[in-house]
Each structure stands twice: as C-alpha cells, then as structure tokens.
Amino acid sequence: MDLETGLLRAFVTAVRAGSISRAAAALGQTQPALSQQIRRLERTVGRPLLHRASSGVTLTSAGETLLPYAERILALSAQALTDARHMLTGHCGIGLIEDLAAARLPQALADFAGVHPDATLEVISVSGPAMRHAFESGRLDLALCDPTYLPEPPRWSVRLPLTWAFAPGFDTRTDPLPLVLFSQPCRWRAPVLDTLDAAGRRWRVVFESTSLAGVLAAVRAGLGVAALMPANLDPDMTAAADTARLPALPDVELGLIRRSGSEGDPLVDAVEAVLRGIV
What we know:
By secondary structure, the protein is α/β, with parallel strands linked by helices. The chain has helices at 5-17, 20-27, 31-45, 61-83, 98-101, 105-115, 128-136, 189-198, 212-220, 240-243, 266-278; strands spanning 50-53, 56-59, 90-96, 119-124, 142-145, 156-160, 163-165, 177-182, 203-209, 226-228, 252-258.
C-alpha cells in the first residue's frame, strides 16, 4: 500500500500543531475530516500514530518512526515539482534558530542540495542579535527566527507549540520546580516563566546554556524541565500524565525575512518554499 501525501500532511501538521483542532485550522479543514485522514493513515500503517488527550496529541512509538519519513516525503514531493521545471544554481545563505537547525529541517535542505548539485546552501545558526547582524551584513538571503530580532516585518510568520521536556522518572511535582533554560538573550524565557507564575508554580533555575545541546544534556541528566519544540525531544522525554501536572505552554512565533533584491531569484524562491513547507 502507498502512503498518500495528503494523509502524511495531515499527520505532520497535527504533530507540529500539538492538537487536531489547531492542525485542522491551519489546513483549512474541519476537525472530524482531519481526524478521519489520520485514522486512514493509521489503518495503512497498521498501528496507532498518535496518543490523543484533551490537552492535545503526542506521538506513539510508531509515530516517532514515521514522522521523519513523512517530513522527507512531503519535502521531496514539493522539490520534485520545482526540479521538473528547472535545475538551480548559485548561492543561498540561510539563517535558522538552533531549535530548527537541530531538528529535521536540515535533512530537507540536504535533500534539496543533493538534487541541485550546482547550488550552494550555507546554513548558519546563531543567536537572534547575531542573526540580525548576519542578515544586515549581506551574508544571509533568508533568516528564520523570532520576529523581534528581525530588522523589518517578516514576509510571513508561523506559530509553533512548545512542550515540557524532562527525563523519564523526573517528578514534576518537585517544589520549587527545577528549570533548565536557554541563556539570555532568549525571548522565550519570559513567557515560560510568566506561565508558571500565573499557575502558581514556584520555580528555580538550576541550569542555563547558550546551546540546545547543553539544554538537552541537562534535561537527559534529570536536572530539571525545559520548554522545547516537540521535534527536539527524545522519544521517552515526557509522559502525558506528568505533563498534565504542568501548565500549558504558550506558542512561539517565528518569522522569515528575505534579502532585498532577491525577488525572482529561482534558488532563493525554492529554498523559501522548502522552509515554509517544512516549518
């Protein structure tokens, strides 16, 4: 049996959005219609792909296995349409926040580069202020990060969910709650702390790092909990029951800007399409 791209898109969107209702809104569909598509995909695979709860959806072990394949299939499908029209050449500088650069987006860009061997993609991952400097200095053609760091309004933006990450066996009832945070500057710190304050949860910072690798290492070691994008979590890093003891986290916004004068550049057009399709 074949995997239908429409069903894969419904599945991937639900995972990114963190709930069926948000995914349905993003795709312009009704919630029952999207749920039916995901069930059709589960029947094709022969195993459940999502755990469904009132708080949203999380991946099953089968879902964890399928997700990277689904994202690559969708990315390659979009690229195939472009590639059938023309081969691309030139250089494109791309700035990504580390949360995206460490997830599955680089694989989509690697697939793209493999199809277009005469095109050069340069991906840099730095802090928001450094990203703005790299863009203003002309090093980047595209920058995708927190819009507050961008020198101009984004061409488009997207809201992505955050989820609590903690090691297996970690007790989320610990008071005060031990937190693992990204070091300043990080625009997501304040909303996370405000969420805990509003829920009446006491907290203390036990570890900070400028890198995603450092934050993940601290979480794996059981030092505390962190707020991360779902794509960057280890498969066993959270449990639904423990997550329910913590307040729901706010979404975060990412925006993309593009170098002035690059309009109509087929390479930059194609890379922007890949970024938009994956994010």
